[in-house]
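INTERNAL AUDIT FORM
Audit reference: QA-55
Scope: verify that the stored structure record matches its stored sequence.
Auditor: D.O.
Record contents follow.
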Amino acid sequence: MKNITISGLYVVTDSALSRGRPLAEVVEMAIQGGARVVQYREKHLSEEGMIQEARMLRRVSQEYGVPLIINDNLQVVEAVDADGVHLGQKDTPLAQARRILGAGKIIGISAGNLQEAIGAWRGGADYLGVGPIYVNRTVTAVKPDVGEATGLELISQVKKAVGIPVIAIGGINRENAARVLRAGADGIAVAWAVFASPDPRKAAEQLATICEQEGKNS
């Protein structure tokens, strides 16, 4: 399982953005458009609700051979046999998550500065989610926990300092994606740019094409 490469277009679910469409349907469209990784992040649901929904996404991800990462919840990872977990700085400690999940699962860590990134790399993280690179004011209005924008320089600094994939996140869209990738990111994580689109497949395809053009989707 650890031979999976985390790169290219990485989509993060957000049912609040999906215009009432079933989450599994939007995820499938994103994968058809070129998403290479799916992170399930629906913090408003109960654990049982998350498990039920994640099972549907797991079937979709397995059908297309795309890794499914669960945000924060180790119990959901185990219940649906997801490929891994993504943890924030205030979530379950990396070492504890590794003990619970074992060596075969992917563990990604969010990093908002160089120190956090290096610490996660040294601690055994498999990839980093670095940002927020930009802050989308509309997203900030519904997610007040989003931090201050770090800018592109952090991507360059982190990429030079660590030996694992660096996925940029935060306010990334088709207008700025190429700049983010040229700064050194191995991939881009998006929610709004795909899930809020009237055509998630096309939105994902446009972003995946940019990743390919920048050599980050292979």
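Auditor finding: record pair retrieved intact. The chain has a mean pLDDT of 93.
Action required: none
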